[in-house]
Each structure stands twice: as C-alpha cells, then as structure tokens.
Protein: N-acetyltransferase domain-containing protein
Organism: Dyadobacter linearis
Amino acid sequence: MNATLNTPLFMKSKFEIENSEFLLTKLDYPERLDEMGALRVAAWKEEQGISKDFFSHKLWLDDEDLLAHHWVITHNKVIVAAARMSFHQEYSSVPHANLFDETLLGQFAEGPFASLNRLVVLPGFRGKGFSGVLDQARIQFAQSQGARSIIAQPIASRIKPLEDLGFVYLGKIKPLYQMPERQIYFMIKDLSK
C-alpha cells in the first residue's frame, strides 16, 4: 500500500492504493450511519456460517451504534470499508461480554476498555490493507482517549494481523446469533504500558 497518512490518523487522511485515491474519515454521529448499516449487510450476506434470516434485513445497526465512534474509508465518496469503536468503564458493558468468561481476562481485567467492532470491507475492496488502516486509526484514538486496553472479537483471518499490532489471543467466544456457524475469538491489547 502506498499510503501517506496525516497525523492524527484517526481524524481524516487521504491515501492512495493502486493509483486510486481513498479517504479515511472519522464520522460525527449520526453521519452516514444507515450507509454503514447497509455496508455491513452487503459485506457479510454471502459469507459462510451466517444467519441468512438476520442478513435478509437491509441494515445491521444496533444500540451500540448510537454511542460508538465510527470510521469509514471512501472511494469516489462511496463507503467501501467501515469500523467502529466503543468505550466502556466496566467489562460487562462491552458488546458480547456475556460470550466470554470475564475471569479469563486476568491482568487485563481493569478498565477503561475500548472495543473494536463491526469492521467490514466490501468484497471487491478486500486485500488492500483497509482493515489495517482502520485498526491503526482506532488504536490511536483509544490511546488518545485514555483507554487502558482494547478488546477485539475477530474471526480467524484477523488473528494474525491483530497479533502484529500487539493484541494477545485469550480464547474463543460463543458464536454470535448473527453468525452461528462462524467461530469468533477474543483478543486484547494492553495500552497501559
């Protein structure tokens, strides 16, 4: 990726890949929220192991979207990738906290926590490094907001890239009802050091 990213990365940055210009933008709520919800469905609806009933809806939005911070990558003003991050004082308020045993957090049990959620990239734009750009923006933002650690609940293909960013693998979580046949994992990054 030939990317020149401005500082701070998490606000707004232009970059170029394969002679095409892209724009990373941190949105203000509720800017483009419906488009992100539609992107989530478009990006996941053909994947294996998902609930066909759930992904028959037009949008994938939840209550956490109202409180979370959102980033998009656009190409010609169209959203091609998106991600969100939420902040939590207690582990119990992290999305899907009930699917992972809190006692397994060990040294990471104390908040405040940031939580990486809802990373999606349209199939035609995968493999260009957008997940990494969105991860770096969210990590920088979590650091700027004083989070002690960042929780991620990735699918298997995201474990290695997150490990490369300093996340530690802690185990599997129970399947999400939206993706009953896809294994989701639990990872955490310590920001307190």
Remarks:
- The chain has one domain: 12-190.
- The two ends are 29 Å apart (CA to CA).
